[in-house]
Each structure stands twice: as C-alpha cells, then as structure tokens.
Amino acid sequence: MRFDIFTLFPEMFQGPVTASILGRAQAQGLVEIALHNPRDVTTDRHHVVDDYPYGGGAGMVMKPEPLFNSVEAVYQGGPIILLSPQGRVFTQAVARELAAEPRVTLLCGHYEGVDERVREHLATDEISIGDFVLTGGELAAMVIVDAVSRLLPGVLAAGSTEEESHTAGLLEYPQYTRPPEFRGWRVPEMLLSGHHAAIARWRRKEALRRTRVRRPDLLAKAELSVSDRKLLAEIEAEDEVHTP
Ligand code: 9D3
User: Fold this and answer.
1) What is the pTM of this model?
2) The domain at 2-149 falls in which architecture?
3) Is 158 touching ligand 1 by the criterion CB < 6 Å?
4) How many whole angstroms from 145 Cα to the centroid of ligand 1?
5) Which of 188, 164, 193 is nearest to 176 (CA)?
C-alpha cells in the first residue's frame, strides 16, 4: 500500500515513519510512504504557500495552487483525504476501509485552514481524528498511516489482529508479565494456574468488567454471547456486595 502525504513540514514525519513497526514495514516493501512538499512546486520568487483570508480575520490560509499542482504531479488514483477538524471522525472502521485501498493521498493543512476550493474540488474525503485542536494535519496523517498500516498483511506478528477481532468492541483485559510479585503486588493467581480455559474465561470477564465501568457506551454496542451475559451478571452480583 502506498501513502502520498502532502505537507509543508515533511520533516515532522521522519521519526514516526522510520522507527519501529512502520520502519520495518517500509523496509519489507509492505508500505510505501512518499512525502511531498507543495512549496517545492511553487514558481514565484519567495515560494509562497499561504496568504491572508479574503474578508479579513486572524491567521493565514493555504493557497490552493501549490496543493493542486503538487498532487496533480504524482496522483495515480485512490481517495484524496483532507485532514481537517471538520471531517468525519476517524475510527477503526475507517482504518479498515482505507486498508483496502492500494493508494491513499493525505493532504495536511496548516495555519488556520486551507482554501475551500481544495475541499470542494481536490479532496474526495475529509477526516478528523477527534474533537481537540492540533496545530496542523501532520500528526493526524501520522495517526492514520499508523492505524491503517498495522492492518496490512505481514505488518504485525501473526495472530495479533486475529485476537483483536475476537475482542472487538471491548476494552482489553489486564496483562501481566514476570515477576509474579513486584513490590508486594501479586499477579492474579488464575494467570499462573496454567488452566487455559479458566484463564480465557477470566480474561473475558475482566474485559467486560473494565468496559462496563469505563466505556458503557461500547458495552451497549458490543455483540455479546450468552456466556458474556452470564459473566456480566456475575460482575453485577459482585458489584452489589461492594456498593452499600
Ligand atoms: C477548530 C479551530 N479552527 C477555527 C478557528 C482553526 C483551526 C485550528 C487548527 C483549523 C485547523 C487547525 C489544525 N488542525 C488540523 O489540521 C486537523 C485536526 C485537528 O485539529 N483536530 C483533530 N483532527 C484534525 S485533522 C486535521
């Protein structure tokens, strides 16, 4: 899969795309990340990429021409996503949608925004990563590249995304590693028992318990089996004992 990222600050991407799992995925040829700076295609003396907003107001707006020209110079199909606070919110479902594309183009805005004609006539999609304000679309683009790349075949160790589909829609169960006692805090005895079926049941129950407390919104949407309902009933009964 290939990502073409258009940004005035390509250096922001150096760490995240070369390190760790993304770095290895690129070295293996599973993911290709091409960075493009719209400033490089400007032909005016000062390589201007932004200008004052028509009608006045604070801040600068990204000019349409450098973005259109730089995209058109390399575009070979696929969605053109404008990262913007006004886009549809990025979720795991959107990540799965994008992972099915052979090429994705990401346009990073900076300053107070981009000329509306980019949104109307260049972008095919608009995505936000959540309701908080960033200084630009670069970190949002990195979030998307990371979340999408790890879904591609071969990027993660075998089995990692398998377990994910099994626990989809729930928070994760607590994890422990050695030592069995650290500063007097013991690992739950169940996990040391070697009783695989009982461990699986304990983990499922703790995932349900945690989701119920922290993300009741997720629990309401989750597809629960009959045994999940039984575990939840147990959790609710345990709760009765502790709440006066
Ligand atoms: C919401 C504030 N805007 C109205 C004054 C101005 C503005 C601030 C910051 C416009 C763009 C930005 C930069 N943010 C992004 O480009 C961005 C973003 C974000 O801020 N939050 C979540 N997702 C995204 S995707 C791109």
Assistant:
1) 0.94
2) 3-Layer(aba) Sandwich (3.40)
3) no
4) 18
5) 188
What is the CB neighbour count within 10 angstroms for residue 179?
Answer: 9
Q: Using the mean position of ligand 1's atoms as its centre, give its distance from the Cα of residue 126 in Å.
A: 12
- Ligand 1 contacts CB of residue 112 (under 6 A): yes
Q: Which atom of ligand 1 is nearest to the CA of 134?
A: 20
Name the E strands within 58-180.
Answer: 61-62, 80-89, 103-108, 125-128
Q: Which two structure tokens, joined as six digits, stand for 236?
A: 């609710």
* Alpha carbons 230 and 232: distance in angstroms, whole number: 5
181-242: CATH topology is Trp Operon Repressor; Chain A (1.10.1270)
Kindly report, as residue ranges, where domains of CATH 1.10.1270.20 are found in the chain: 181-242
Tell me the C-alpha distance between 193 and 218, whole Å: 31
- List pLDDT tens digits, range 109-155: 987 899 999 999 999 999 999 999 999 999 999 999 999 999 999 99
